[in-house]
Amino acid sequence: MISFLSVLMTALFPAFFAGSSAFVIDSQPAESSPQPGTDYIYLADPTIYCDTDGAYYLYGTSPHADEGFLCYRSSDLCHWEGPVGACDGYALVRDSVFGTCGFWAPQVYRSGDTYYMAYTANEQIAVATSRSPVGPFVQQRHRSLPSVTRQIDPFVFRDGGNVYLYHVRLHEGNRIYCVRMTVGMDSVELATAREQIHAQSVWENANHADWPVAEGPTVVRISGTYYLFYSANDFRNPAYAVGYATSNSPWGPWQKHDRPLISQSDIGIPGTGHGDLFQTADGRWFYVFHTHRSDQKVGPRRTALVELIFADGQFALKPGSFTFLRVSRSAR
User: Cβ(116)–Cβ(128) under 8 Å?
Assistant: First the structure.
């Protein structure tokens, strides 16, 4: 995810090149960063949608972010094929929807026989539809959702009969908001918009930036408690990390945990953040996210996965579960 207001030059990050010198591949540290092979998947801001047939579909911000959204597929979260999008690997292409550039941070969800993709383009949020998870996702009218400012990083959350759009507004920092969506999930009730979280703690603004960042929201409800996962720090900062907060209401207030759940100190790789939480059919929790390409380069960002343990109302990393996602050579 990129925003020209959040574009901070390297000089603002004196620790940018001071990250860990070790890499962790499939949970095993290596002495030096590996040469990126063609089998790694390079999607930032990733999301995984599990369809009713048990197949998993992966989307995210492509290295060619002005073209649309690529799609990969897996039956087991380990072996991936693709890109399998209906349009030469893309599930959504620029000419079929609102937007001309900056296609970031998609989310796919389903209602009835219709698949929806909420996404960012031109620093606005739009929703496209398809009859298949591989697309093509299109809009009959090329338009974005109503807004009062630039906004990015959509996450649509359905709670009973209510539908909420969590998103990030670019105003005095990247701030997470919630707004009620209309019944058709194709617009929002602007008057209901309310700020949820902004970066305040030490780990959330490691470099004391004038433009603090909290972004990439995902929300789930478990036994009456709402969990809001989010990322903090600029995505180019090695300290980019994932945290979560809890509430008794989808509107907050949110009680943040005092340290990140996924960070460089946990994984051993810089730039761990902006992903999506999902649960498998057998009840296991996973978080898909991106990392920097290496200690020296931010992009193209690599797509990774960790399993989370949920116990006593809290999430924790499952030891040894970290892995980079790759296209199986036999599937290419």
Answer: yes
CB 54 within 8 A of CB 75: yes
User: For residue 204, what are its two tokens?
Assistant: 């959330």
CA dihedral 115, 121, 126, 132 (to 10 degrees): -10
Tens of pLDDT, residues 234-286: 999 999 999 999 999 999 999 999 999 999 999 999 999 999 999 999 999 99
User: Cα separation of 281 and 295, whole Å?
Assistant: 36
Contact between residue 288 and residue 48 where contact means Cβ atoms under 8 Å apart: yes
C-alpha distances out from residue 98 to 24, 75, 114, 156, 191, Å: 39, 31, 19, 18, 23
Distance separating alpha carbons of residues 114 and 188, to the nearest angstrom: 19
Residue 33 in contact with residue 294, Cβ under 8 Å? Answer: yes
Q: Long-range contact list for 185-192, CB < 8 A, 24+ apart?
A: 185/111, 185/116, 185/127, 185/156, 186/127, 187/145, 187/146, 188/145, 188/146, 190/146, 190/147, 190/148
Map tokens 């009713």 to a residue.
52
β-bridge partners, 58: 48, 72
Quote the pTM value.
Answer: 0.88
Pick out the chain residues at pLDDT < 50: 1-37
Contact status, residue 294 vs residue 305, Cβ threshold 8 Å:
no
Q: What is the DSSP letter of 123?
A: T
**Best CA proximity match to 284, nearest among 303, 308, 262:** 308
Measured between alpha carbons, how far is 170 from 123 in angstroms, rounded to an integer? 9
Give the pLDDT score at 184.
84
